[in-house]
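Hi there,

I know you've been waiting on this one. I reran it after we fixed the sequence typo, so this is the corrected version. Both the input and the resulting structure follow.
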Amino acid sequence: MSDKPIDRFGFLIHDAARLLRRRFEVRGRELGLSAAQWRALVWLVRDGPMPQTKLAEILEIEPISVSRLIDRMEQGGWAFRKADPN
């Protein structure tokens, strides 16, 4: 590994992201949310209601997986579905 600061910067960013992700996962578990559920929740809070297909694309998972994910989130009171008027 190089001793140049610019070469170490990428590793530091990676480590910081890993530690933040781990902290979010711990906090999510305390609240009863899986990592996938809190990721979905962040996007829904940030961008508002969206079709499940769009959420699946954002989360890079299959639409059927998002459907089950939202089912569990609805049961926990974290999300709800609304029919698309279109």
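Quick highlight: The radius of gyration is 17 Å.

Best,
R. S.
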